[in-house]
Amino acid sequence: MIKVGIIGCDNMRAAELVRVLINHPDVELKWVTGSAPVGMRLDSIVSGLVGECDLRTGPQGALDDVDLIYLCGKRVEAVEWLSATDLPEGLSVIDMSGIHNLDYGDSAASWKYGLSEMQRRVLVHDTRLVTVPGDVATASLLALMPMARNLLLNSPIELKVALGTSAMTNEGKTVDGLDTTAWADDQQQEIVCALLQCQSSFDQPVTLTVTPLAERRTLTVDARFKCGIDAEMVHQLYEQYYDDHNFVFMVDRPAATAEVENTNKCLISIDKDDHSGYLSIHAVMDVLLKGSAGTAVHAMNLMYGLHERVGLALKGTGC
């Protein structure tokens, strides 16, 4: 069993993470801590947990008693904890704050980018420090990676993102309290940084616009750029790239949001305008699962030698 502790349990991404982990057959959730008073029942903080667990918030448990820590709090909290903590040998950390998403590399001591569809081989080889991609970056990269891996991103890219209210507020801030303009700039930089890992020659401008979406849990991305190959070849490239991945699927129609809500899936559809030469890639996923907690658990499964779908075979609402 993987013994897990959670730091920063009182926010939406942590809530979703708890819901997944308490049903994961290879995880023992040892302790959770956050800003809530010590001793509060977790089901009084996290909606949907009534009858699911008896955990209470507490002070941070002993790090020697766990194998893995999830950092679920705000960025400043993650930085403070890491600065103040001497990590025991063998302890792994998955950071969900996003603070390291522009600060990862190839050295053994560095953080590894936790997008499994991009970094699967890296994550299965003695990785201890993983940073979970941003939600918009995740969807955008899943839409673009097959093209980048085939060196086919050679024109400016427009990304139009619609984001559910579980990730955005109406007050110009994210649910973590970040200014949405600065957050969008971070997401854009993260996308470019990751694309350069996939296609070292990539030097095209990427414009990102984000608008609110009525569906609370949904994130959609429309990526548009010029492409010199026909639609059939593009479909083949995407099918081949995602053939042995467990959570990204191609569909030949616009995907309904209910197909991905409450799942770790990303559904992708393709449209090519042969007259203009523009290719449009549409990706849709659940912002709290594939955009956060599901990706974090997916990375954990790879790190500990488990099948990718363990604990993540979740059913969509379907209607």
List keywords for this structure.
single chain; 319 residues; alpha/beta; Rossmann fold; Dihydrodipicolinate Reductase, domain 2; six-stranded parallel beta sheet; six-stranded mixed beta sheet; 7 helices; 12 strands; globular
Describe this structure in words.
- The protein has 319 residues and is of the alpha/beta class.
- It has two domains: 2-133 and 291-303, NAD(P)-binding Rossmann-like Domain (Rossmann fold, 3-Layer(aba) Sandwich), CATH 3.40.50; 135-287, Dihydrodipicolinate Reductase, domain 2 (2-Layer Sandwich).
- Helix content is 28%, strand content 22%.
- The chain has seven helices and twelve strands.
- The chain has helices spanning 12-21, 75-84, 116-123, 135-149, 180-198, 231-242, 289-303; strands at residues 2-7, 27-33, 68-71, 92-95, 112-113, 129-131, 157-164, 206-213, 218-226, 248-250, 266-273, 278-286.
- Strands 2-1-3-4-6-5 form a six-stranded parallel sheet, with helices on one face. Strands 8-7-9-12-11-10 form a six-stranded mixed sheet.
- The protein is globular and about 65 Å long.
